[in-house]
Structure of GNAT family N-acetyltransferase:
Amino acid sequence: MSIVIRDVREHELDSVLALNNNAGLAILPLDSARLQRFYRQAEYFRVAERDGNLAGFLVGFGADSDHDSSNFRWFRERYPNFFYIDRIVVASRRRGGGVGRAFYADVQSYAELRYPQLACEVFLDHGADPALLFHGSFGFKEVGQSQMPDAGVRASMLMKELCSYSWVKQTYGDTLPDQPWTRSRLQVETAGERSTGTLA
């Protein structure tokens, strides 16, 4: 069955929280207050549906956001303009079924319209080889390592150049064509509803 990537809905946050906190040591735990903050502030917060069920989620922030992650700060101290993947979680029963790849195709499609680089990290202390291989196959390269002071976890800091960004910037400047798939979830339509993202 097909995978649908779309913006999260507020009533789904409890399910997102459960997915996050059942994901194991590769993902930092969340509480409901922090998840609500993500919902209010994250530039990209999408879920995957497969067979009508929630199969995962991905949260991301632009370099100018007021995000308080130590890994986000690590990138911001070194790079002026990037899009940061804070976390991706895929339900255990859906791992290996293409959900992660669908998310990364979607988030890259979103980010390359706005940012020259895509950033994320992989925790190194709990069997990182599958995650490093996954990111390497998408063109990410390690640009450093960081010891997270708030979690005591060592992370490989990864960055990917987004080759379409320069063309988009030269062609459209700061004004993208108004299409559903080009809108940020934080853009409010005149009707007062959040726009829905689609896999471009």
Notes: Residues 3-182 form a domain with the Aminopeptidase fold (CATH 3.40.630.30). DSSP finds six helices and seven strands in the chain. Residues 157 and 173 are 29 Å apart (CA to CA).
